[in-house]
Write a structure and sequence with these properties.
The structure is a homodimer of 404-residue chains. The first copy, chain A, is α/β, with parallel strands linked by helices and 404 residues long. Chain A folds into two domains: 140 residues, Aspartate Aminotransferase, domain 1; 243 residues, Type I PLP-dependent aspartate aminotransferase-like (Major domain) (Aspartate Aminotransferase, domain 2). Helices cover 38% and strands 16% of the residues of chain A. Chain A contains 13 helices and 15 strands. In chain A, strands 4-10-9-8-7-5-6 form a seven-stranded mixed beta sheet, sandwiched between helices. In chain A, a hairpin with a 2-residue loop joins strand 1 and strand 2. In chain A, helix 2 runs antiparallel to helix 10. The longest helix of chain A is centred in the first third of the chain and has 16 residues. Chain A is globular.
Chain lengths: 404, 404
């Protein structure tokens, strides 16, 4: 969530872009930010490429939302066809929400067989929090030290990476990634001392905003401690899910079986669709007593987009591609710094935030898009569409070599 | 939000629909509900019509989301074209988010010139709450007695219509629609006595879940009292906005100028797009200190859908249609009960919830879709797509006559 590479009003920008920025600043709320000192104006996307108004091509090494590639024709066709046919809510009987839920259930562990749909990852985490409260009767939540889980009021309170202007709730405890299980046990003890009943451990299973960590050997021990204290484990797969790390779900790499799984960003390749997968017994009390209706959630167009994304991941072998190109990319990155991550979610540890900022800006000038992450903003965040090829990796490494 | 007309497992349902319901219940979370004792299975939509698997046509007198008619070809074409071109987030410079924000600003009062985009009305109200807190330093919120504002954890706490399993926050006060200003003043006094600083009065300007009220003469007085106490006024236009009541915005009918306006359901004719319009000074502190980024919010496809909806409302004269057909419909409804509402948002007061339930079910058997509303569920909620014609109104009245 760090915006180290934000727009600088003094930068050398074309008159057209400057005019568009002025219009934007006049009409959008002041909370909006632009990436890069010289913002990137994009008008078209295809595969791993984004294109500017003059046709200039940017290599996209950053956007995990367009997971099967920008404007993938099969996803576009599915959206167009379904939008022309039917788009309505789940209180009528419709086919696609059932088809899509069954497809998701088929790639999830069998115990996580109940799906609910929302429109954004924030909504998915917010819903998971509500389910966790109804299940446990508790309120306490443990998150990692620089976690990001979303922007609703309840989830911003659980997202330390949003900074001091988004204060954490009194019911929230933060833990480091290193020494994870011991810190979780200490957080549980502290909750008990404060009279707070634990509801959940909520973790992004690739620890993206903490700087990208693939190997957390005591993760399972931490989950066991939370369950022993009456809480549940929510795997936030908004970043790591959908084959990004070379397996279907990030939690699988840690050998874990969550109580709830939240998902979002890549699900519709940019179409707003997200959701929660639950163990039946975990969602039972919430479903019976509380109810939940999301007007747009699970509509047939969103489900058609989601189904098309799953089809493309399967038919184009993108999970294997994430493993293979990811391994190649990490190997080629090793000379540049400490490499972490799995599949096509890679963190490259540099010396300082200043260096990371300089590299991100210099790559932008070479029309290569990445960003930085971590509590100090000193790691590069490398997270291209899953169709990223070995040749794309070579091109990225070449650009990186030129700027480091 | 009442689900008085929910699916009854014993009902006479086709084997195919029964099989689909069984699959649905096996894979969706138990929080999902179906309308009607005999659920309506829909596979296609066009204009004011929804169609079942056998081609049977249902007259849609209920769905405000498909505001320009189901699967309107101009909206479908805009979505398909833009999805094939570019779909990315607002941290790059893109044209459509600026174009769309300017179009919205042009139909809003000039003081509400700053737009922010989310994907759902729940997210819009959640964001408005966060802005209100940052602006006022307060936490207290006043809502109507049977209000519904959304399903995030923070907004469910402000939505008494969700029932006792969704307890209201300690910082929330509820007021009746009748005797509004006096009740708001009493709520403010009670907050002061409890040491709660007011943040906002949050009101759906057609009072939909309270039973549909078009005439609340002391609304302005209530808003003035909240502002005098340091709070702001948030107009929830998720239901009343986008010409539904025969004017652009529901608050205009009450002669009010809100501090924040939230919008959602009809914006994209079913595509998940929603937003907040703000006075610059109201959103300034939030924008500077807190920031906000919604991954899918304001993406080019959502904005293309939103622009197409505004084009169709203008080109097909749907605001005037809402006024004219709405007036005709209300006139023809008068013999059946107490008529409330404006434009094509109409409440028909019946004797009891039992009667309302019976009418809703009987109309469904005649393939006419409506629902019920109000704290006792004893008012019919009549809210068709804005392309509803006088002939459609006649057809609806004919069906209603046959079942009452």
């Amino acid at each position: 969530m760090s915006m180290i590479n934000a727009y600088s009003p003094g930068a050398d920008i074309s008159p057209e872009d400057r005019a568009l920025i002025a219009r934007r600043e006049a009409v959008l709320g002041p909370a909006y930010r632009l990436f890069y000192e010289r913002p990137v104006h994009v008008v078209r996307g295809e595969g791993v490429w984004l294109y500017g108004p003059g046709g200039e091509a940017y290599l996209d090494v950053y956007n995990n939302v367009a997971c099967v590639g920008h404007s993938h024709p099969r996803v576009v066709e599915a959206i167009a066809r379904q939008a022309a046919t039917l788009n309505t809510h789940t209180r009528y009987l419709t086919d696609l929400v059932v088809d899509y839920a069954e497809r998701l259930a088929a790639i999830l562990p069998p115990e996580l067989g109940r799906l609910m749909f929302t429109c954004t990852g924030s909504e998915a985490n917010d819903l998971a929090l509500r389910i966790a409260r109804a299940r446990t009767g508790g309120t306490g939540v443990i998150v990692t030290a620089n976690a990001y889980h979303g922007v609703t009021a309840a989830i911003a309170e659980l997202s330390p990476s949003l900074g001091p202007a988004n204060p954490l709730g009194d019911h929230v405890r933060v833990v480091p990634v290193v020494g994870f299980a011991a810190a979780v046990r200490a957080a549980l003890a502290d909750m008990q001392a404060s009279g707070i009943r634990p509801a959940a451990l909520l973790v992004d299973t690739i620890f993206s905003s903490d700087g990208v960590f693939d190997d957390v050997p005591d993760f399972g021990e931490a989950v066991a401690a939370v369950r022993a204290a009456g809480g549940i484990f929510i795997a936030d797969e908004v970043q790591a899910g959908f084959s990004r790390t070379g397996v279907a779900w990030g939690f699988q790499r840690h050998g874990l079986s969550p109580d709830l799984v939240t998902m979002g960003k890549p699900m519709g390749n940019g179409h707003p669709v997200a959701g929660v997968a639950a163990r039946p017994e975990v969602v039972e009390a919430f479903g019976r007593e509380v109810r939940y209706f999301n007007t747009f959630g699970g509509n047939p167009v969103s489900c058609a987009a989601g189904l098309a994304v799953l089809d493309v991941i399967r038919d184009e072998g993108l999970e294997a591609n994430a493993r293979e190109v990811g391994a190649y990319l990490r190997e080629r990155l090793a000379p540049f710094g400490g490499v972490r991550g799995a599949g096509l979610f890679v963190g490259l540890q540099l010396e300082s935030a200043d260096e990371a900022t300089r590299v991100v800006q210099a790559l932008r000038e070479r029309r290569v898009l990445i960003s930085a992450t971590g509590p100090r903003g000193d790691a590069l965040k490398i997270r291209p569409p899953l169709v990223f090829s070995r040749a794309n990796a070579d091109q990225f490494i070449e650009a990186l070599s030129a700027v480091v």
